[in-house]
Amino acid sequence: MERDHLFIISPPRSGSTFLYEVLSLGVNTIELGYESDLAWWSALPYSPQRGFSDFVEEKDLTNSISKKIYSETVNRAYIQRYGSYIRYKLHDTLGKTPKIYLDKTIANCFHLNILNSIYGEKKNRVKLVVLLRNPKQTISSMMEGWKYKDLMGKPQIDGVLKRIENRKIEHWSFPIPPRWQENVNKPLHELCAWSWAQHVEYIFDGIRKNSYDYVLIKYEQMLESITNTIKEIEVNLDVNLGIDFDKLKIKNSRTTISPPNQDKWLVNKQLIQESLSSIKDTIVKIPYVID
To answer: Domain 4-283 is of which CATH architecture?
Structure first.
């Protein structure tokens, strides 16, 4: 059966969990209800071959790995809804299952070269909602969120990190870009800026190489009108999420650390301004004017 696979692609701390929770209200979507990291970690654990990073490319995939990731994301989402694989397939055969699988993990920024191989076969389509936020605000929020190891941390690489001399951090938070070991000697604000830029670069590079259908959404636009944002996603990606706008109730996402405020970044203003010069080549690629 034809199915759209809709992925929210976003750097950390850019509002992707909020958007995921809103889009999951649609009657035409099905989702895990949580980030799909566990499926990826199970199929592709952090390894020295991949530099202990989240980046995955075609050579890392086998047929069994692809099937495992698909089973632990799409099939699991349907089984959660219908109670068993048999009941899911019965409803699917009768055309009574949602036709849009919704997925979100920040690490998908580093999976774009292989999403089509896993999810885009036969009549299935992969579509992207790319969500970006003003980098000053994003970097500040990453600095704030970094300390929440239980929520944001990557304990799987603690042993690798602790063996690196002259590091300035004791744990890693958020998805792990390639070459991260070369950057742990940076102060936190510079490290967060570097990590943000890597997420953005891999997003644009992945889209360019794989010709995905995508729509680019700005965080500020989403806060101004989530209804208009949803409609823009539906029009540009030719999907009908089935959201009842009259019953749409907005609340903070489960990963909200503090309420949204456009000026929160000012507490780190000096540090962030210092870090911008190192990521200027990435900033010019995004739809923001940064002074």
So the answer is: 3-Layer(aba) Sandwich (3.40)
